[in-house]
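fwd from M.: "can u put these together and see what the complex looks like"

so here's what she sent:
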Amino acid sequence: MAKELKLMKGNEAIAEAAIRSGCDGYFGYPITPQSEVMEYLMAEKPWEKTGMVVLQAESETSSINMVYGGAGAGKKVMTSSSSPGISLMQEGLTYLAGAELPCLVVNVVRGGPGLGTIQPSQADYFQATKGGGHGDYQLFVLAPATVQEMYDFVFLAWEVAFKYRNPVMILSDGAIGQVMEKLYVGDYVPRWTKEEIMKISPWATFGKPDYRDHNIITSLELDSAKQEIHNHKLQAKYREMEEKEVRYEAIECDDADYVFVAYGSSARIAQKALQLGREKGIKVGLLRPITLFPFPKKPIAELSKRVKGLLSVEMSAGQMVEDVRLAAEFRCPVEHFGRYGGMIPTPHEVLEALEKQIINRK
Amino acid sequence: MFNPDIIKPENLVYKKTSVLTDAILHYCPGCGHGTTHRIIAEVIEEMGIQDKAICVAPVGCSVLAYNYFNVDSQGAAHGRAPAIATAIQRLYPDHHVFTYQGDGDLAAIGTAETIHACNRGENIVIIFINNGIYGMTGGQMAPTTLLGMKTATSPYGRTVELNGYPLQITELLAELPGTYFVTRQSVHTAAAVRKTKKAIRQAFENQKNKKGTSFVEVLSNCNSGWKMPATKANEWMVENMMVKYPIGDIKVDGEIIKK
Amino acid sequence: MTEEIIIAGFGGQGVLSMGKILAYSGAMQDKEVSWMPSYGPEMRGGTANVSVIISDERISSPIISQFDTAIILNQQSLDKFENSVKKGGVLLYDPNGITHPPTRKDINIYKVAATEKAAEMGMAKVFNMIVLGAFLKVKPVVTEEFIEKGLRKSLPERHHGLIPENLKAVQVGKEIVETVNQL
């Protein structure tokens, strides 16, 4: 595949990846710090190049329902927003999950609660990985740490979304959205034809042909017994994801006495703290979850059997640390270090926290 | 008693359209939903667009409309049908996407979606059933509930002080440049049914010609919610609902013809 | 080699685009780069700043709080970032509008009268490139050849006619940069 070097913001990389991955439709509403996604798309006019539809909706509520409509009709559709907008989308997300519709939602997280701040944060971890809206459901959650991953994960998202008929969320943050880095882009993947859609998503509402009954997209089932069966099916799907789709990166974990667990921007800060620690002679490693759901429970469990402590580094008051603790099952100390409300920890702070909270813990 | 053997082809005077499924309608006897369903289905059949028609069903009494229309369908979250229809229509521009919504869905919780879809002039058909009450949830006040009308949440009658005014959303939508055809009809008499069918046919023809949004309001009684026998409910509708919500075309070919 | 830079000044001074050209030039020279702007309401008429990292290795964190070099274009930014320069690092500033010059003795300090020079030569549009030239004289993290390539890549094609003027401004900056404090 031809690779072309570009220099791009994370948000722009999402938009470029959408066009190149054969996305059929983007529906969004402006909010800082991710507005560049739609701005880039509108400037690129992909409807002239690939036929992709781009529409600015009247609200995030409307955007996510446009995604529902497009996804229900078998198209590759997506939206993006930031925390307050993603909160508005929770209604749509639970319907999408209930109706088992493949789609992509990008959250470029900012600090909260409420209107909060526009600076980077990871305080939407619970919302992203524990459902978010009402009912028992899971999104498939990817956490990019680089602009390249912002791009690559759009492609991965379509793969997973259509394989499992499930909404996929890319959980990014203001830093990864705004930073500009080198990016290698690949060839254009053509959009699916109607014939391909009929084959890939025979359940979708692309218009009823004579040969089959009418297709219905809904999350409603008034018969509780049937609804329980539907829930069993969803849970089986989530377990299968846990079995087959866990992704993570282990950096210098082999000889590590202590391991940072961090994703996205925090993982990059923790990696710098790792270097500082190694310079001081502390054997530190980094485990970076790439999928937040399914969470890399097994590698963390394995680490917890042989390391002296795990430090969950997050730009939140301590959310992922709960999953780290559950995976570690008290086999080793697990602590949390975070800055929040839009503040970003420094590598020195992170190393200091490791020394204070784990290495020299009383 | 039903015996297909005694129906000879030469005796057949009427046949249910194949664009309705054989599922048994759950609507109350005398309600306008069933008739309106049949009209839409007949229009789809007559236009030969069953393979291109996509229904977006609401939340409300017609939440299960997708079980009755024999076309590909999606069930929307409460009020969001116009947003869903917007996306499907834009992604399949030659299809016939229509929403079927009640007054709570379209004129309360979904007001923003309704207004903006109409204002963008989305090439969709919106069928709006107005019975002035929330039927499915048990007869609560709707935005279109008349002043003085008793409902479960306005048990002493709707008042301006407490609840504000009945919303004439259809007249409001006619003002938007994106709407091409806006009309209000009813299905309480045979003549009214014929007129409604003509209006719905017009709406789908407009869509075929990519004219923008066509909006058909259908007044219906809600005899259960209004706590009246069906015939009495129709009389009440004529005497009361039709005063506030007069029948007739409001906007035709993009021009407002009646204020 | 890893060079961690902050460029800070008023919105409209070309702070972000200077950073972008620097990052593009580094990328053209096969370096790893990152460009991280401040964003939000502070962009509107207030101060603007951008962190640029140019490195031979994979960049861990693009978010930095201590800098090898601070390029400072107004008093507010000087007040904010003087103490964030690493010991032994570089502070380069334009004296225009600076009422309280930097005082640290443990860093190298340079000044470039870019505002004045740009006005004098009628080059107000490429003021930021005069500053960039001064920086490259002090710290040649990218070579001139790649600055031109960086400009070519970062400027839209319709502006490619302006490249010679930009390169001239870089030269001017190299010539007029002055040492204030040398370790």
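replying to her w this: Chain A has a mean pLDDT of 97.
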